[in-house]
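Pinned message: reference record for SRPBCC family protein
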Amino acid sequence: MDRRADVAASDDFAFAFVTDPRTVPTWMFGISRFEPRGDRAAGVGARFAASFSGVLSFSFELVATEWVDGALIVLESADPPQVRARVEFRPRAAERTEIRILVEYRLPGGLAAAAMRRMNDVVAARAIRHVESNLRREVESAYAAARRGASG
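Predicted structure (tokens):
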């Protein structure tokens, strides 16, 4: 699943917002908890404990496998099912940033998995649209609040 969002915020602000573990539940579909594990909350090797709440509820761990400050973060599941989320940040203007979100997941093979894959694709498409719209709204709202605070 691949989505792009054009947000009214600087790329540095957008990156800081997205990579702040406290903000993740405000924009990530179904995530009710997202906390650093250990003493690292940023950079390659940082680990995060997350909880998903929805029709099914479960906890899982993500590991940052790529991290370029201001430009890129890649999170991958530590255990099956294999999920990979790549978030890229590209400045478009002084206060506009394109955020690209690419989510991939792997399911086991077989007929049951093929049926499950079709259902997951529908759910994943809905989830990624949710992420894109919520992320845009939350980043822009926080950026506007920060600018108001800085000017007054």
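Pinned by admin. Summary line: The chain has three helices and seven strands.
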